[in-house]
Structure formats: C-alpha cells, structure tokens
Amino acid sequence: MTSPTLFPPFRAEHLGSLKRPTALLTKRTEFDSGKCSKEELEKYEDESIANIVKMQRDAGIKAITDGEFRRHMFFDGVFDNLDGMKHISPVPTHMFKLYVPDIAAFAKLDFKGADTYVCAAKLRRTKPFYGPQFEGLKKFTTPEEHKHLKITICAPEWFHLRHGEYAYDTNVYKNDDEYFDDIAIAYQAEIQDLYSRGCRNIQFDDPLLAYFCAESMIKGMEEQGVDHEKLLNTYIRAYNKCLENRPKDMTVGLHLCRGNFKDGMHFSEGGYDRIAIKLFNEINVDCYYLEYDTDRAGTFEPLKFLPKHKTVVLGLISSKLPQLEDPQELRERVFQAARVIAQGEPTRSYEEALNQICISPQCGFASHAEGNRVAETDVAKKLALVSSTAKSVW
Fold this sequence. Notes:
Number of domains: 1
CATH architecture: Alpha-Beta Barrel
Number of strands: 8
Strand content: 5-15%
C-alpha cells in the first residue's frame, strides 16, 4: 500500500472538537454566571487541553487540536471578534431564514431568546481570531508537533446564509460582494497571523455548503425567490478571496457535514452530487473532510470529480454514537471510494486514487460544548479505531 503522509491531512484524522470534561463544563457555567474569574476558567481549560493532547497522541493522531475547549460553539472566533458586527439577543424571528435547515429545526424547538451577529458598520479585524488558541495549544505540544497542529475556523458565510438581507446594513455595504470583500481582508490577515505563529494546518467548518445538497433548502429558496446557484457561487468567490495569497506550505481543509448539535442532532440530508463539481474544482482548498457515516450523505459517486491534486478525508466513523464500527467494513468502504475516484476524470490508477484518501470521524464529538452521547473513553476508542484502520489500509 501507499506510504504514510508527512504533511496534513494525515491518514488518520479527526474534525477538531472533542468531548469536554464535566469539570470544564461546570467551570464554564460558573464563569458565564459570574461565579468564577477568567483566570480560574483558563486554569481548567489548560488542564483539560493538556489531557486531551495526550489522549490524541496515545490514539496516534498527528493533527492535534485543543478540542475547541476554549469555545462554546464550533463557529466561535471570527464574527464575535470582528469590528463592525453587532450582537443581537434576542433575535426578531423575521430575521431568520426558515429555509436554512438548522434554522427550521430550531424553529420547531422554539428558538425564542436566540442570539446572533449582524453587520452594522464597516468590518475590520483589529485583534486576532484564533491566534491565542493556537498559542495556548503550543504550550502542551512539542516544537516538532507545532507544524501539524490544527486550528478549526468559522465559515465566512456563517451569518449571511441564516439572515439573508438582514446580514448587513445596506447603508454600509451595497451588495454581497462588498460585504464579503471586507470579510476576506479579515480572513487574509488572520491566516497570515496564524502562519507567523507557526500554524500550518487550518480547517474551515462549513455545514452550510452541505445544506445546498438538501432538497428542503433548495425548494424553500425557490419559493422565496432566492437564486441558490448564484448564492453558492457568491460563497465560493468569498472562500477564494479569503484564501488569496495564502502561504503555499499551509494546508487548508474544508469540512462539510449536515449538522452536529448537542446529542448528535443533525439538520439536513442529501448527497454531494448537486455541488460536487463546484466543490471539488472551484474552491481553492487542499482537502475535504466529508461526512460519510450514514446514508444521509449519499454515495461515493460525487468523488469521481475530485481532482488529482486534492485529498478527501472520508468521515466513516460516527462521532454521534458510542458503538465502534467494524474495521473490515471501514476498510472495504475506503477501497470502494478509491475505485470510484479511479474512474473519474482525469483518469488515474487505483493506487493513485487510494493515495488521495484519509479517514476520520464524520464530525466533531462536541461541536456544541455539551457534545454528543459519547463518553470521553468512547472518544479515545473511536480515535484509536481511526488510527488502527488507517494503518491497516496504508
């Protein structure tokens, strides 16, 4: 089989967020209610991150993360630190677009009291988004590991899709392109800052692109006169502007899933077929972390559009359930995906196609701080399964 990769993505990967210890969740609740200081919270964060780093090492994971232990939600970091964004709580319900799958799900659960961010003034990055988190992770890793450490990053269109015309003040930006131009400037500066700190591995977390595979959203957009093809193109341009002039030796990945709220709740279904050509050929990233643990993600057929110079990380292992997958079935699914990729254009050998594949859980274990219905011991077993399966294939 092919040799192990020396640079990210590695044969055995994970998606960033890991199960928070109960003590850390308790301390964060105390901090949010004013019952403990920031210094006390950071002490618990540091202790928890030190432990989770060791767990990843023991499981054979090279692209180590801090488990997102310094965040409440996976998308924290950008818009809550970007000058010009306004925090709104509670949000008037008319500002939400109900065709967006997660918004539709929360509406059924009654999302009164929800908060959000919208653009109220010119957007400017005046402080780092993720630099302190990267520096905090470096404290618990060796200099040799620093170039492999992974920082997960919020999708640039996160608040735009859910709010549509309410996403920004039209007295500030006349159109989407102007809005995303300034967002791109902020992301470019952030990427350069992370690079200067030694970061060489970033991953955009973007369930929104996967929503464009959901018939429910496409139908809802069409009913409201929203041009979904034009909007997808707008988001692709936004990504590429964010990544302009990025360092050549920084690995940039893009993660798509269909929702991973607390207790493993998902929001949409539908294979990648609708967006595969654009996803794989028009967005200037190096690799794709794709949900593939259940039928809701469709078949491997869209992978035939994967270019020869890019990598796909197959999310074959569930982060939502504690049961361990069968290693032989995982191997067979990897081989099946390689056969599909080998049939694509341009043609390539089966060996070349297999060399374009890595494996991982399908999403994080705690995109929301409370996490999925897995214990910390389950997480360790799942990551060890990823590593052992990868070793048996490659």
